[in-house]
Amino acid sequence: MSETFPASSALDEEVARAELYGLLARLWYAAPDAGLLEAFQVAPTEAPAAGAFLEEPWRQLVGIARDTSVAAAHDEYDALFGGIGKPDIFLFGSHYLSGFLNDKPLVQLRHDLDRLGLARTEATYETEDHIACLFEVMRYLIAGDDVAVANLTQQQAIFSKHIQPFLPALCDAVAQHPKARFYAALAVFTRAFGEVEAQAFDMMA
């Protein structure tokens, strides 16, 4: 997973989008480590992607990250998404779209990724419908060098079919969980960012 941190809202908009997807992928894949929490200490409090709608949830996320320890972040991640047996919250699209893990939505996603020449690496343990994996796909579709694959049309197709339909439900589940603090703030920001992306893609239609 990418660990690139958005440095400034003055960055080119597409670069900022790609970096933000990379950051979200990293944070949803695993609890932030010391280096990432240190990056939040000096992160700008203005949103790292265009849109005033993101300013307040980003400011809240940065503030909570600055007050979160590595141990607390890891404990929270494990309490929400880990543990033995069924986790409190699933991070997989199939769970929200069909009610089952490894179900038809995952098969459809794999078909679409295969069509784009994309596949899960051996280093990635989670299935492709894990929200972090989907965000990493979006990062590539924005920043990749192959313009036949990395373009707005493919971004819209993947986002509208495989992310947008379940992202609000996932974020709401995290934001409302009594054990969520850092991840509650991350969920609120992620939901807001998803809404901005959805609006932008709708304008393309």
UniProtKB/TrEMBL annotation:
Keyword Chaperone applies: yes
Pfam families membership: Nitrate_red_del (PF02613)
Keyword Nucleotidyltransferase: no
Keyword terms, alphabetized: Chaperone
SUPFAM superfamilies associated with the record: TorD-like
Protein name: TorA maturation chaperone TorD
Organism, scientific name: Variovorax boronicumulans
